[in-house]
Amino acid sequence: MAEYFPILIYLVAVIGFAAVSLIMPHLVAPRKSTPVKDMPYESGMDVHEDARQPLDVKFYLMAILFLVFDVELLFLYPWAVSLKGEGGVPVDHRGPVFVVMMVFISTLGLAYVYAWKKGVFEWRPK
Amino acid sequence: MTIDWNFLWPLGAAMVIVLGFVPVAGLYMTFIERKLAAYVQDRVGPNRVGPLGLFQSIADGIKIFLKEQVIPSHVHKSVYLFAPTIGLMCAMLSIAVVPYGPANAEPGPGFRAIIAPGVDIGILFLLAISSLSAYGIILGGWASNNKYSLFGATRACAQFISYEIPIGLSLLGIIAMTGSLNIEKLVAAQGDGIVNWNFWWQPLAALIFFVAALAESNRLPFDLSECEQELVGGFHTEYSGIKFVLFALAEYTHLVTVSFLTVLLFFGGWHFPGLTGPVDATVAGFLIRWVVLAVKVSLVVAFIMQLRWTLPRFRYDQLMGLAWKGLIPLGILNLLGLVIVLTFDASRWWMTILSVAILVLSGMANVTMAQKRIQRKAASRMAMETQYS
Predict the structure, then answer these.
(1) What is the rounded distance in angstroms from the CA atom of residue B183 to the CA atom of residue B179?
(2) Using an 8 Å Cβ cutoff, are B91 and B253 in contact?
(3) Hey, which residues 67-96 in chain B have their CB within 8 Å of chain A?
(4) Which DSSP symbol is given to A39?
(5) How far apart are CA B165 and CA B323, in angstroms?
């Protein structure tokens, strides 16, 4: 774990950097708020209704699909690292591993084709 | 507890270089970009402050700090202030595992041009941290309580997660060839001559990676999250002064990281014909390698900036279509070709042939399909016209 210690120190430094640059101008710069300045900037129109409204269902579908693909991708990484080289898959096991990976990737492909046929990737009505 | 200076001073030096270089580079990249934009549009650009306008960036920097700090009354204050911080934090943290100068595969004592050397999961760490930047955007958009901000943030987030997958797919190839996730080792594997650069074996993956990484760093032609004509400023509409600059700095940091990664992973990093042996054997060799890396990275940065003035912005459905219908199937096909070549121990040049074949064939299929679609549309229009005439 010793390799990760620099990252921890660096993380503290970066948070400090961001915090200092956020706080510094608040001490130096002038502040004078007026009612108009405090309004939301929506092209000069008076605001009506809350901004936080329900979103298009497309975005939720994207998020679900992303989870499916990203998790599958995560499983591919250990396999890619151990495909060649010492300590990886032994030569006589390569055949079975190859078949297993093909099955794995084809399930990914199946999910992909299903999503396409269902029209998840269509962002405009036809 | 004793303080280990042999461990601390290289870390401190590396950190000072990154934390000092990134903000200055961000300011000066803004300047270079403005100058480039001016020349492309037949203007002069900033030329008033200092010789050739070179002090413009310094003036901008001072102005940012002295600018009025507006926190609008309708925002969720803590989240509003937290969002730019987390955006910058993720962008800066992902540099920790990227060597910004020559670094040996085995970390030795003394100065190293990388903050955290020898991290075995380098690329995974990078992908994980940089995908956290989506939080900065979505939190900023939500906290602003502005419709443009929220739309921009949602768009940006969907774009961000969509292009995450092609990036992951495109890197599998070089990882499988090298058998490591450590970026220094990935670069070291490209050491012997120019033909060993990963680009020659994985040209399609390099293309996918570059396009997807461009979209990840929100650069034109993919800056749908902040397109001015539709969304004012996108997720940072309500941000001004230093809070806006933190977002902008995060974006430029992403740009720098992407340029470094493109060079390190696909174009041989600091390797160049004629430069052999360990990187820190002599001081001159070390510096020459650093210059080689810097020149390569600058070329990529210049290329990205030129793209901005060459390509028009995508439409949103085109953008999502490019990720899901273009890059992801190409990435999966590329992965299949690679698995077959590596499992059956064929020559690596087969990967090149397969990559190019996949790209050409899919391009031809695409054109044929588009032609058929146009013909179908024309036929249906003809039928309509005869019906009503």
Answers:
(1) 11
(2) yes
(3) 67-70, 72-74, 81, 84-85, 88-89, 92-93, 96
(4) S
(5) 8
| Prediction ipTM score | 0.87
The pLDDT assigned to A126 comes to: 61
Phi, psi of B80, deg, nearest 5: -60, -40
- What is the rounded distance in angstroms from the CA atom of residue B2 to the CA atom of residue A96? 52
| pTM as predicted | 0.89
Q: Encode pLDDT of B265-314 as tens digits.
A: 888 888 877 776 666 667 777 888 888 888 999 899 889 888 888 888 88
**Regarding predicted confidence, which is higher, B362 or A38?**
B362
Cα–Cα distances (Å) from A15 to A21, A58, B93, B199, in that order, read 10, 35, 10, 36
Q: Report the candidate in B276, B269, B323, B334 with the shortest Cα–Cα distance to residue B300.
A: B269
Residues of A in contact with B177 (CB under 8 A): 84
H, E, C per residue of B313-356: CCCHHHHHHHHHHHHHHHHHHHHHHHHHHHHCCCCCHHHHHHHH
3-state secondary structure of B98: coil
* Residue A37 DSSP SS3: coil
Residues of A with Cβ-Cβ distance to B117 under 8 angstroms: 3, 6
pLDDT at residue B371, rounded to an integer: 92
> How many CB pairs below 8 A link A and B?
196
Q: How many CB atoms lie within 10 A of CB A65?
A: 20
Residues with pLDDT less than 50, chain B: none
**Dist. CA B326–CA A2, nearest whole Å:** 41
Q: Could you tell me which chain B residue has the CA closest to the CA of A107?
A: B332
Mean pLDDT of the residues in chain A: 82
Is residue A101 very low, low, confident or very high in pLDDT (cuts 50, 70, 90)? confident
Q: From CA A112, how far away is CA B328, in angstroms rounded?
A: 9
pLDDT (0 to 100) of residue B111: 73
d(CA B123, CA B170): 12
